[in-house]
Amino acid sequence: MIGILAQVSTVATGEPVLGTSGLIFIGIYCCLLLLIGWLGHRAKKENTLADFYLGGRGLGFAVLLLTLYATQYSGNTLMGFAGDAYRNGFNTLSIVMGMMSIIGAYFIYAPKLYRLSHSRGYITMGDYLTDRFHMRSLTVCAVILGIVALCNYILTNMLVLGKLVVWLSGGGISFTTGVIVLAVIMVAYEFLGGMRSVAWTDMMQGLILLLGVTLIFGAIFYYNDGVTGMIERLHEHKPQALVAPTAAENREWWSRIVLFFFGISMYPHAIQRVYSAKSEQTLKRSLQFMVFLPLITTLLMVLLGVIGAGKFPGLDKTGSDRITLLMLQDLAQTGNSGLSQALVVLFVAAIIAATMSTIDSALLAISSLITKDIYQPLRPSLSQDQLTAFGKGSSIVLMAVTVGFAIWLQDATTIMALIKLKLELLCQIAPAFFLGLHWRLLRGSAVLAGLLTGTATAVLMKQFGVLADSGISPGLYGLAMNVIVLLVVQALLPVAKRTSL
Fold it and tell me: Residue 122 and residue 114: Cα distance in Å, rounded?
């Protein structure tokens, strides 16, 4: 995601990338989001936390699949992955395997978690932790980790949206105006219908994302002579991209895959979608289809970056981060002008859709964590209406604060260095789910000890650069310490009765 900030901030303002018709299309798209939010409000069945945050637990196959897809793939997929592929060649294919591995992680814990969520009324990941371990301190620590990771996620994506607006309009629309308008739109449709509106808008955004990626890649692939042209250009201009990975690069491959497996599968907004499925069969079918979507999205963007390495050799770090934009500009010049402009508009819409779907989902998840896991225990006498109102209000406050930070930090390109810690933090929660759901004797104090140790290890190693050249993520060293401490503490504790989960 840092790469995206660098790439959009280094594109000079000037002539608008989109013409008037393109900006009108984006405007219509935003209006449709508000309409869907209103329809989600009309479909509301009751004014409860379950209805607002989980859509009444009634998401069908198509909606669940596309909301999972739109949430999992952000603007980083469309732009950041291509830049990484430009620099590292086919080694970036590890990202594709990492995205596919996430579905395997879901299958380990999601079906059982779904059954528990429906029988016990879970709304957030904190509800499961409280019900399973009966340890308030563990729930609060895990929830705080989730909130910190998602706050970084939202802020970074808001910066991306603001810089995209400036770039698309050639500076005609300011960063501040773009961020505020898009933030108001997202808060409006989320305020109206909660998860139902977010999932329905994700459905449209997911379709645009699928269509935009496949069509733009198909056009670029066609106009650059397909596989033959790609290999010939790489062989001539960047032969190192065709070399087999070294031992260190292999370690980085596996490190990235394992980090994706444990980290991304712990997204709080993804866990809420597990709860929101209409049935267990619907959940499983959606996950089965999700296995193949990285081949349509991540793989195509990696190949686009590899094609760009042969097409525009010699770019530095900043230049390579802009490879998606360079390929779009090249397409507009070499292809059919009318068709190329339409494809560029569609792809831009896909970038905006992917980024907005990430923001609205993360915002809803943070609001639910604050309301259900932090605020409600302090005010247990409040009604569902009052809690829902508080949740809606917290979304508005959160977005306002995020917009303020985004405007304040709009000129920075690497201010989100902490975003690298997102997955390192989230994977420390994984033992509570992967082990807790299947090991009935596991104690909450052991999980908490492991979580705190793993988090401290990951943060300190990251901060001081310990073993930075090992090719293994600090988060995985932290996760290893997490599990070791968990097992040691569990062995030292007196044997407990099995839980009822």
Answer: 9
